[in-house]
Design goal:
Elements: H1 4-25, H2 32-44, H3 49-57, H4 70-86, H5 92-105, H6 110-121, H7 127-137
Amino acid sequence: MRGFFEHQFLTFKKSHLRNLIALARSDGDFHEAEEQLIYKLGVKYGLKEQHIKKMIANRKEFSLVVPPDHEQKMDQLFDIMQLIYADGIVEPDEIAFCEDTVLKFGYKKEIVNWLLDLFATEEVVTPQEWEGAKTYAKRFVK
């Protein structure tokens, strides 16, 4: 049996993955590279492939779950940026989704262009670079 905090953590990670699935569907084309990344992230967060498959198959509309702090918001934005670039095409619908997300997260919309530029110029954003980026991103908080 799972403890309360383990259940809360799992619920948060499922919400995080649902946000990514909604983004992947936002341009009307759930690309194979996006699906592979969602599976990879889901497994990384401790979800079983069968649960991820059910989440992807579920067409129900999900409401965005806002992470409780800057660190978690930025980590979710990191995954969102990975997903935006997963298929090699940055679609206007994906950018609009991201802009809506950052506003709900309490950031200025300008953070989206900064993140897009960061991920477009870097082949891989290292963990050390991301830690520095999270600190820099505090200037975009409303």
